[in-house]
Amino acid sequence: MNYIEKISTISINLEKCERVTKHSNSEENQAATLANSFIDIEESMGKIKDQISQLYLKELNKDDVDDIILEIGEELRHILYHINDTKVYDYLK
Predict the structure, then answer these.
(1) Cβ atoms within 10 A of the Cβ of 13, count?
(2) Among 73, 86, 3, which Cα is nearest to 42's?
(3) Alpha-helix residue ranges (DSSP H) falling in 1-93
(4) I need a labelling partner for 15 at 20 to 30 A (CA). Which of 32, 43, 55, 70 fits?
(5) Mutual orientation of helices 62-85 and 30-54 as an angle, nearest 10°?
């Protein structure tokens, strides 16, 4: 499924949820915002999973570990951005 199909399908389903739609207004459709967030978070989680798997390797040097930690941090920052970008998860702040 390509990005357009994913965002369309997720948005249609999220439009069925009052917890999402009650935050929409004329300037922003929360279903679309949340759909985009979920797609990006899904991608970041896959990257984090791969990065954590690298930490199981025995031949890592200190620079490798440092790079992995920074890469994980960047993906977590990206996830946090998307959590903060939607009103649906304001209670997490």
Answers:
(1) 12
(2) 3
(3) 3-14, 18-21, 30-54, 62-85
(4) 43
(5) 170
Kindly report, residue by residue over 4-39, the tens digit of the pLDDT.
999 999 999 999 999 999 999 999 999 999 999 999
C-alpha–C-alpha distance, residues 31 and 37, integer Å: 10
Provide the token pair at 71.
Answer: 């890469």
**Residue in this structure with the two tokens 């739609």, named with its chain if needed:** 21
Token output for 12 = 């249609």
Of the candidates 39, 45, 90, the residue with the CA atom closest to the CA atom of residue 72: 45
| Extents of the domains making up the chain | 3-11+32-92
pTM for this structure? 0.89
